[in-house]
Prior knowledge:
Blueprint: E1 5-10, E2 17-22, E3 25-31, H1 33-36, H2 46-56, E4 65-68, H3 72-86, H4 91-103, H5 108-116, E5 122-124, H6 127-136, E6 143-149, E7 156-164, E8 167-175, H7 180-190, H8 199-205, H9 214-221, E9 222-224, E10 230-232, H10 248-253, H11 267-295, E11 299-303, H12 310-319, E12 324-327, H13 335-348, H14 356-359, H15 392-401, E13 407-408, H16 414-423, E14 428-431, E15 445-450, H17 456-464, E16 474-478, H18 482-485, E17 497-500, E18 538-544, H19 550-563, E19 567-572, H20 584-593, E20 598-601, E21 604-607
Parallel strand pairs: 1-4, 4-5, 6-11, 11-12, 14-20, 16-18
Antiparallel strand pairs: 1-2, 2-3, 6-7, 7-8, 9-10, 13-21, 14-15, 15-19, 16-19, 17-18, 20-21
The chain binds fe (ii) ion.
Fe (ii) ion binds near residues 127, 150, 304, 305 and 333.
Amino acid sequence: MSPIRILGLSAYYHDSAACLLVDDQIVAAAQEERFSRKKHDEGFPAQAVEYCLKQAGIGRHEVDFVGFYEKPLVKFDRLLESYIASAPRGLRSYLMAMPMWLGHKLWLADEIRSKLGIDKDVLFGDHHESHAASAFYPSPFEEAAVLTIDGVGEWTTSSVAHGTGAGLSMLREMRFPHSVGLLYSAFTYFTGFKVNEGEYKIMGLAPYGEPTYVAAIRDHLVDIHDDGSIKLNLDYFEFVHGLTMTGSGFERLFGGPRREPDAPVTQREMDLARSVQDITEEVMLRMANTAHSETGSRRLCLAGGVALNCVGNGRLLREGPFDEIWIQPAAGDAGGALGVAYALRHKYLGKPRVSAEATGAWQPRTNGGGHGTPPEYADAMQGSLLGPAYSDSDIAAWLQTNHVEAERMDRCALPARIAGLIAAGNVIGLFQGRMEFGPRALGCRSIIADARSTDMQSVLNLKIKFRESFRPFAPAVLREHVADWFEFDAESPYMLLVAEVAPSRRVPPPVGAEALWGIEKLKVARSTIPAVTHVDDSARIQTVRRVDNPLYYDIIRAFYDLTGCPVIVNTSFNVKDEPIVCTPDDAYQCFMKTGMDVLVMESFVLTKRRVQDENNTHTTQEHR
Length: 624
Ligand SMILES: [Fe+2]
């Protein structure tokens, strides 16, 4: 029987993406921004589609079905109804939105067919069903509760579903304008950050603040019901009918106008961040309780933009009713491309899901447990390494064409060499394997460094990323050692769970540290891995298994053998406001314009100035 090839697409809002599902196998998935080099690119994902087809070795006419992640006509209906309900107040935003809708969104099926150059029916999924499908079908669970939370899809802003085998029943929903994601985005806007982009900054800022505005938010802005549903007081929000998220109501309630994007962050912004983070976590916990009682499941799958709130996810795991949580790594709208492809396969075509009984692959497998032998599990995401890869011969050809010299290493000797360079304080650009799908770099397009270094946080921010950040960098840790270093002993392969550094690894802050303010607090060593420890002793953990990413694992393992520390810094291979690198050329350009010391591209090692390894023996040529 010939395989069924389903192309899933998400586009025209933010983070456009394409995904190709061939039977039950995700053959390829990628965000358009990585190819177009336009961050959060919302255009048609033409280059991502090209890549997916090339990866599968098929032509566009060999695609059997095309799915789009949401229903544009229903979304249009929401826009129209919202305008009518608030008319004439929303006239300006309505008139501004119309050209885009009339230009292509309403005729999307024709547009997609013409852009793809194929004459196939396009099936339109439901936005939250696409999120739910992206959370459940590739998860390691045969049965699970599914929770989706974001800003808004067509009408839905949050949903509870139940997945069993190939079935996915949507059970409950919350509807626009009542939305946790939009509440969080309103505070993102009011504290001077970019909506749909700066939400993670609020999460990083929260530990510096006090929850002084929680009462004001609860009294004036939002009613939180026992089941986790919320009701926003629309007198305070402008997003239904205006061109901004908040207006004069917020200014009155929070003591003045919003912070201008270039103005300094003050204690008010920190307290607002902490307050809205606390409220969001409470809502997430209540929603999880509802998902648990509705389904009776012990397992939870999560997706939607709010599922990228890894601090909230960490609390769900610690305090919520579920034994296990699996979060779709592309939890935002890019993951909708994957979700609609899965929904099309199982719900529309009625194809069975590969079951635990059939393969033994879906269920977590216990191999004895105990220290050093965590249970194995398998999801269908392949480590979320679903993008393009470049072989040694591709890299060699690129180096030759561009007259760039590099040292070719024996693959067996490479991990120890890189570990030595990290231990000696070098910052390494690591370009290997298939590019990650989703917003996090997971060791294939990553910058890695020594987590034990007290100044690495500043070095990375100022010399490499060209930014000041309230967030520390994230740790990548060998899975079998995670419980020795963090208050955590579970899987976090996609860096979407936050937990505290283990008390045994913490150090008391020096005298006078309590007087420090704002970002200065982050420069105080709070643990033996200060580069990855936040001011509240928390860390955004990536657990690493060899089966998911062999070279990455071997590097951390070699670093552990050398230093006794199984933790390194992992941050995305890009600079501020640019997408993560995709090609050897992107990687080299980023390497050359930053203070990075070493670039590793598969087996090739490039250094731009004299670098030393742990034994002070190695020097290499100048590249600048
Ligand atoms: Fe969404």
